[in-house]
Amino acid sequence: MGTVHAKSRPSEAFGEVGTELLGLEDPIDFEDEPVSKPSIQLNGVRARVDRVHVDGLSRTKDDIVRSAVDDLFHATDFEDVILRAHKVRKALDAMGCFREIGVYIDVSSGPGATPEGLEVTFNVKELSRIVGGINTTVSENEGNLVIGVKMPNVAGRGERVQAEYSLGHRSTSNFSVTTAKPFPRSQLTPVVSASVYQQNHEYPWSGYRLLDRGLLLDLAFNTSPSTKHSIQWEGLVRETSVLSKTTSFKVRESSGPQMKSVLRHIVSIDHRDEAVFPTRGGWLQFSSALAGLGGGVAHVRTELQAEANGTLPYADNVVLQGTCAAGVLHDVFGTELADRFFLGGPATLRGFAQRGVGPRADGLALGGTMYWATGVHVYAPLPFVSSRGGLADLFRSHLFLNAGCLAHPEEGESVVSALSEVRVAGGCGVALRLGRVARVELNYCVPLRAATADCAAPGLQLGVAAHFL
C-alpha cells in the first residue's frame, strides 16, 4: 500500500496521532530526544471526511472514481478513516488504471474546515496508453517466457486489450488476444472478458501433442472478499497428433481433429494469509465443466482441491499443512486422452515421475477418469539460520507425506476397488519462494508404495509450480 501522510499543527491533540496514524516504515528523526507519551486509541478520536480529492486523472472518467471514494464519507473516527482510505486505495488499484497511488490525509483546520473535518487526497499516476513487458509463468512443471503488450484503460473505465505470446522450454507455445471490461460500480464487481487463443503443447509422458484454437468467454465476479467465481464458455478446435512412430496404439486412437464446446464454473474460497507460504487459513476450489453443447465431445468433469494451514502450538514458526484433491470424469461420447486426469510429479504426487501414476501402455501414461490425492506437510525456517529477514525468508525446509490413486475403471469393475490401489511417498527438502505466486521445491523422495505399472522416481526431484498438492 502507498504511504499515508498527515499534516498537522504542533498540538498535543493531534501530534501523537500524526505519527501513529501513518504507519511509516522508517522512524522520524527528531533533533531532541523523544519524550515518552501515552498512546492514543485512534478509534476514540472523532473524525469525519469533508472533502476527497483525486489528483492526476487524465483518461480515467470521474464517475468510476467517485463511486470508489464515496465510502470515505461514512467514516466516524480516525481509525475508520485510515481503514476506509486503504480500502479505497485497493479499489482504485483494482481498476487497472493507475501505476502509482498515494494517499494523503490533511488534519489541519484550514478555512472552512470543522474541528473534526478531514481532507483526503489521492495522488494517482495513470498507466501509459501502451504497456509492454516480459515475464515468466509456470505450468505442469514447465517454465514459460511470456512477452506481452497491453493497452490499459482504453475508454477511461478500466477496459483493457492485451496480446501475449509465451514459449516454454519443451516446445510449448501459446498466443492469445484478450479484451476485458470491469464493472467496479456493480455490487459483485464483475469483469467480462473474451479471448481468442492458440495453444501448442507437447506431452512426452503420454506421447502426444495438442494444438488448440478457440474462443473463451469469461464472467468473473466476487460474492465476498474471499470468494471468487468464474463462469466460462469455451469453444475450440483441437488437433491431436503423436510424437513418434512408436507411440502406443491406445494413444493413436485419440489422434485427429475434434470440435469441443464447454460450459464451466469455477469457485474458489481463500482465507489464507498468503498463497506461497501460508501460515494460517484455508483454500478451496471447486470446478465443474459440461461439454456437449455443440461439437463432437460430451462429458461432465468435476474437480475439488483444498488446503488447510496452521502453526504448531509450541512453535509458531513451524506450519502444518494438509492438502487434498479429487476428480471425476463421466464420459457421454467422444472423450479422448487429453480430457482425462493425470497424477504424479513434483507438483502433485511427489516420489513419482510426471504423470507416473495410473494406467499405462508401452510406457506412456493414459490417464484416468477418477482420482484422489492427499498430503501432509511441515514447513519450517531453514535450520542453522538464527536471524529472520532478508534472503532466509525466501526459503523453507519441508517434510511431506503424499498419498493418492488414479484409476480408469473398466466396465463392471468396482469404483471402490479401482481407487483402493493407494500410492504413498514421503521425503524432505527445501522450498524457495518465487515472488508471490509460485515456488520451487527440491525434495529427496522415497516411494513407499507403488503399483507395478507406475513410474516411481526415488531420489532428488525438482518442481516448479504455482500450486502444489
From TrEMBL:
Query: Which keywords does this Swiss-Prot/TrEMBL entry list?
Result: Membrane, Transmembrane, Transmembrane beta strand
The annotated topology with respect to the bilayer is: Multi-pass membrane protein
InterPro entries per the UniProt record, alphabetical: Bac_surfAg_D15, D15-like
**BP terms from Gene Ontology:** mitochondrial respiratory chain complex assembly; protein insertion into mitochondrial outer membrane
Which residues belong to any copy of the Bacterial surface antigen (D15) domain? 153-464
Superkingdom of this entry's organism? Eukaryota
Q: Which family does it belong to?
A: Belongs to the SAM50/omp85 family.
Name of the protein in its database record: Sorting and assembly machinery component 50 homolog A
In its UniProt entry, the species of origin is given as Papilio xuthus
